[in-house]
Amino acid sequence: MARPDEMTAKVDMPVLLISGGLLLAFVVVGLINQEFITSFVSALFTISVKYFGSVYQFLMLGTFLIALFLGFSKFGRIRLGNIDKPEISNFKWISVIMCTLLAGGGVFWAAAEPLNHFLSVPPHFNDITSGTEAAVTPALTTSFVDWGFLAWAILGTLGTFVLMYAHYHRGAPLKPRALLYPIFGDKIMKNSVLGTLVDVFSVISVAAGTIGPIGFLGLQAGYGMSALFGLPNTLAVQLIIIALIVAAAAVSAATGIHKGIQILSSYNVVLALLLVGAMLVLGPGLFIFDSYLQSFGSYMQNFIGMSTYRGNNDWLNGWTVFFFAWFLGYGPMMAIFTSRISRGRTIREIVLAVAIIAPVVTTFWFTVVGGTGIFQELANPGSVSTALNSNGAPAAMIAITEQLPFGLVLGILFLLATIIFVLTTTDSMSFTISMAITGDGDPSKLMRVFWAGVMGAVAIILLTIGENSVSSLQSFIVVTAVPVSLLMLTTFWSAPRVCAALAKEQDIT
Hints:
Strand content: under 5%
Order of helices and strands: HHHHHHHHHHHHHHHHHHHHHHH
Shape: globular
Helix content: over 70%
Number of strands: 0
Structural class: mainly alpha
Distance between the termini: 43 Å
Largest sheet: none
């Protein structure tokens, strides 16, 4: 075990102080003047989506296409990490990847987004009447665009290849700035202003993206427990829920990749599979399969057009651009996390798991949850939409399960799955931020617990200010995605370059 002075020596103090200081400043200003912070973030949000919305879309699409080329060309045989065999089994590996991203959308967006698009058909399909059978496919197709191939590719393909090359094959610390290693070499890893800024923006962006779901979990779990068990949906209950989740996340993060994080992810994937089976058997199984087949076909047919759609900016900025910016904000840190758990994998394995298998599973999950709600709404208008419109995303999930056999049991299990999804993201991202600040693939337990606590504390403080502040923080993700998008753009050149270098070293012709 490292001595305290050794752990301190590894910590990048400028990155720790600036990123932590900015998050603290956000909270302090919010406590003093909530209206100012809301207006300020809203103004930055408007500017960023106006000038960078198309950049986000181009970057997401380009990342996916280049990743496919690298994964299914000769470069796909490259083995990353300087070991001959993966450290983690396939099931556990994919489980950790799935649970880390799905926290933000695993249950609540899966229920709410398809229903929202069903009740108000997206502009891509303006000739279809909302709330009818014809609106089912457009609703699911649009959800697939937001949570499908492009969303996953940005989280674990090109950036992961560059970071694994820099860290495992060239000895660079596992930090976001290592994404620039193929361009600047060792200079970027030293006391560089650019390197510090890259690390700071990456930490802030992923912290904001994680704090948002933690805060909303308090609101959502509070509502769910009120609906299921009759508990009072008060601020105190919400704060207790968050405190317990953060404490569990801190313990999980402290135990590391091979224990807490991996175990939680594996169990939650099993739970999600059981819920899928229950929804298919107890719900409209045939409708779900038919809707998925047709909607996925529509997704493939309209893939390029919907991914690059630039009309109706108000709608676009509220949905696709917002989600794309959110995932971009996770990009550098998820690349670090995926690098840490993917040692010994080939490029083809990573592309298959992250950019193909994960989005296919995600889109089917969205169809099972959201499709069931749409089926119920078609059969009985208002059965889900009334709750959705009055109480938001958590109400949609509860309204769906209440109409199924064993509704109470299913509601409890979905709520449990949601809690574990957020928990796994919190522990994974606190682990990853710690890696980014120390450059160590196995950072100190104290640092991991510290970041889990910081994110939980910020979420708690934001909830005491009001729900609008959590929304403001999530909008802030779109703003922090601006510098992160420029960082990820460099992988268009650097990822193919490092693949060419590794192919030569591994005699792949």
